[in-house]
Every structure is written in C-alpha cells, then in structure tokens.
Amino acid sequence: MKPLIVANWKMNPGTLAEAEQLFNSVAEGVKDIKDAEVVVCPPYIYFSIFNSSLLKDIKIGAQNSFWEEKGAFTGEISLTMLKGFGIEYVIIGHSERRKHLGETDEMINKKIISVLKEGLKPILCIDNMAQLKKDLADIKREEFRKIIVAFEPISAIGTGNPYDLEGAEKMRNLIKSVLEEETSIIYGGSVNSQNAEGFVKKAGFQGLLIGGASLNPKEFIRIVDSFGKN
Q: Is 152 noted as a catalytic residue in this protein?
C-alpha cells in the first residue's frame, strides 16, 4: 500500500494568490511521484480552485466537518457541501480544535459517524488511547478499516521535536491492537524531510500528517519524494 501523505495547511496561507502559488508548486513537484498518495487539506474558501475532480496527482481533503446535513449552525460546513467539491478525506479531532475550540470526544464521535455514513474517509487525530476509545464509541468494528488514525502527540506538534521512533512504533502497535488489521495508522508531529522516511519504513506507519512543513513546497516535495519516484 502506498504511504498516505496529508498536508494540513491549517489557517494558511493568507491570500488566494499565495494559496494558488503554493498548490501549483506542490502539484508540479509531485506529478512524477507514483509511490505515495498525496492529499492537500486547505482552508474551505480555497476549495473552488482545487476541485479534486480536475486533479490527477493530488486529492483534496477538509480540515473539519459538522455532523448535521443542514440547518441553523452558523459557521459550520456540512459533508454534503464538502462532497460537492469532490472531497474524499476529512480531518477530525485535531488537537488544535480540541484545545482552542473546545471539541469534545462526544462531538468528535458524532463527526466520525457522519463522515462514515457519507462514504468519506475520516482522519482521526489522537494523542492517547483514551481519546481513541471514546472517539470510536458505538462504531462497529467492521467500520474501523474505513478510518485513518493519525497519532499526533501534543508534545511534538509545532515544536520541531518529533516523537522518537521507538516510542512512536510502540504507540502504533498499541493503537493497532484495538483496531482492524486493515486500519491505516499515520504519524503527525514535527515531520520534515529528514525524519519522514523513518516513521514509515522503521516505525511502521502507513503515512504522515504534515503541518508546518506542508507550507514550504520544496520541503513538502522532498518529504513525498523520499518514498521514491516511479
């Protein structure tokens, strides 16, 4: 299976022109890389210029979604809206949303259930096993294989100090022990071109969730390129 490399732009960049330049640079740089699946998750307002139905080498994901289909939920984005842009992946439960926006495990659980119901692929971000068990409450085991779990240790996010490979591998094995064999587990937290390959080829993760480094097209391309060109 190809490694899944996900770029989480967060609330960046600041203008449409910068977003277009960043995306075009990444698209050009990864077009010959066939040994990784690349997903870019930009802010919602940039979806219209990155319609995934027009893309060949990059898929587009969302940074969040709401669990209701429509209604009086000011500021929220429904999965129906996301599907209209050809979105395939949705990041759920990122630590920044848990910390700064008060997202609870109950809310995250509702979001995962709704994403699965709509046939999209949730990327569930967790820091520990307690979160994982609460976030997957009432979800059937056969559905686990449709979920991508991103181990994102809070101690590593945005610090420049990634989790050590041995500790990351132990956590991956622990997560795997409560999931279906087919469930993909990816790593996120201060990933760069120097350590990316180690998390996949040594620690055994099926991919990476990349934050800050995804805003540097040369660095992001180097990360994707570390998995080889065909």
A: yes
Number of domains in the chain: 1
Amino acid at 193: S
Cα 145 to Cα 172: distance, rounded to the nearest angstrom:
15
Return the CATH number at 135.
3.20.20.70
Give residue 124's Cα distance to chain centre.
Answer: 8
Report whether pLDDT(54) > 70.
no
Asked if the structure places residue 23 within a domain, the reply is yes
Examine the residue annotation and report whether 100 is marked as an active-site residue of this protein. Answer: no
User: Tens of pLDDT along 203-230?
Assistant: 999 999 999 999 999 999 999 999 865 4
| 3-state class (DSSP) for residue 148 | strand
- Model confidence band, residue 34 (pLDDT cutoffs 50, 70, 90): confident
Residue with tokens 């994901």: 61
170: Cβ contacts below 8 Å, ≥ 6 apart: none
- The residue to which tokens 């490979």 are assigned: 165
pTM of the model: 0.96
User: Does residue 230 lie within any of the structural domains?
Assistant: no
Write down the catalytic residue from 37, 94, 103, 169.
Answer: 94
- H or E element at residue 20: helix 16-30
Percent of the chain with pLDDT over 70: 97
Name the phi and psi angles at 112, rounded to 5.
-65, -45
Residue 61 domain-assigned? yes
Whether residue 119 lies inside any domain: the answer is: yes
Closest by CA to 199, choosing from 173, 168, 220, 225, is 168
> What is the extent of the structural domain holding 41?
4-225
> Catalytic one among 37, 103, 152, 169?
152
Q: Which helix (H) or strand (E) holds 61?
A: strand 58-62
